[in-house]
Amino acid sequence: MLGNKRISAIRLQKNNDKGKIMKRKISLVILTAALALASAIGLAACDDEQNTSCTEHAWDGGNVTREATCAEAGETTYTCTVCGETKTEPIAKSITHSWDAGEVDQPDITVEGSITYTCTVCGDTYSETVPAHVEHEWDEGSQLTAPTCTEKGSMKYECKICHTTKTEDIPATGEHHYDTFVGYETEPTCITAGRATYKCMTCEATTTKEVQPTGVHSLSWEHEGEQHWQKCANCDYATDKEAHAWTETAREEATCSAEGHVDYSCETCSATKTETIDKTAHTYETKFNDTQHYRQCSVCQDIDGNSYENHAFGDLVIDTEATLYQTGSRHRKCSACDYTSVESYELGNFVSDYRSGIVLENTSGWEYGHSDYKWNTPSTEDRLPGNTGDTESFVFTRSEEFNGDAWLVKNNNNEVISEIKAGWLNGSWSTLAYTVGVGVENASYTLALGYKYNPADSHKDLYTAANVRIAVLSQDRTCKYSEFIHLDGHGTNEAREISGLNTGDKIYVFIEFEEEKEKDGDNVTNSSWSNGDFTCRIFEKQPEQTQDE
User: Fold this and answer.
1) pLDDT at 517
2) What is the DSSP string of 423-473?
3) Nearest alpha-carbon partner for 166 in 186, 191, 133, 142
4) Average pLDDT score over residue span 158-171
5) What are the CB-based long-range contacts (under 8 Å, 24+) for 455-458?
6) Domain boundaries, given as residue ranges, for the chain
7) Which CATH architecture has domain 350-540?
8) What is the Cα–Cα distance from 506 to 538, expressed in whole angstroms?
9) Region 148-152 average pLDDT
């Protein structure tokens, strides 16, 4: 009991000291405020040297820019609201210390000791007597660590007399708090309860709990025909049926060969539908081939199989008349369509044109080559007696090379000396040779020859002529006919009748070109005869009919 009285006396003394300190602090605060007010009232004008634009400062209420402590004075800063100039005034040191919990010096609680308090700011200290006491008088304690379901907690207790502390464990509660949702084992529905797993907030322990029915329907869209509605997946609840709100999503137009379609989807549910567009009618046009006309659709190319008809031709119309020297052209038109049949035609007794053999697979009866023609050197080979005399002879070299356009003959230096195309010859004494076909006996043939020079602009004052020698030899090399013909190049045509021809006889046509001048000029050069058009055609002369026939 005596110890308790002594401690009370010490605490009373401590409280009295604190009261005196508080009174001093209040007095200091009042003094500071008074000085600040007097400074604000007494200042009548600003220092012109500092700010000439402000004749009288208007100080604001000030801001504490450094708090006063028991270790050092503070500071208040005032700002002029007119010119912005500032001034500072000190705040006296605080008389209030921040005492720590104290340090007890009492090795034996049965003997009087002491407790020393230290200011945590300035380091000042003061001491109090701790009376002797037989046992500690513990306070109610404060919890340091709360116990959990698996971990112990702790309590701190302090002696009310000597401030000695002690710590005691708080046993683990063993009580889980299942407040963390993990997931459903069975989800609740609108009408049935479910079960969910929960985890303890502190440890990994889990448990399952019943979850009450949600009372909320799980709706999904159903549809049939032109209606849709919503139905609960867990009970019999369903909404009223309503008509679809169709929206067109795609369209493919119909053609004459395929149906079209329009696709729709409902704006509300997932329903879709497709409507078919019937095929369109064919768009028939009249088409034709060489023998018939028919109807064909211009869109799908379908042909009306029942529409085929043979052409209804009218009379033949001659466009270019056939002569000994040129092939004719004629046409006839179908009266039911736009088809026009165009054909080439020859005179009825036409046998052959040398141009028909200007192909790789030559079976026309014509041969092409080059001849070494000798005028005044009689020879036993291929002599040409007759009205030209018996001093002429030749050696014919047949072409074996076709370049896709012409038959060629080359010399020993591989130079082209004869080049024979269809209508165009190159090289002096280029030779055409025709063998009379089978079944011919003592027949008369007409040989039609023609030449026309077509000069280029650079040679318009020049032209070439063609000297042509005709020779007909039998199979035993007997000369049946020989004649020289001059074609002047202006489009001259000549025809000769050759009689007494039999199968196997060979008709030779030797061609030599020569330059002729119509007008002399300073820039005259040798003309090129490669622009000439040469004609050589054979016709069989038909025997004249007697009156009896």
Assistant:
1) 56
2) TEEESTTEEEEEE--TT--SEEEEEEEEEEE---GGGTTEEEEEEEEEEEE
3) 142
4) 90
5) 455/527, 455/531, 456/528, 456/531
6) 1-43+55-134, 178-211, 219-277, 350-540
7) Sandwich (2.60)
8) 12
9) 90
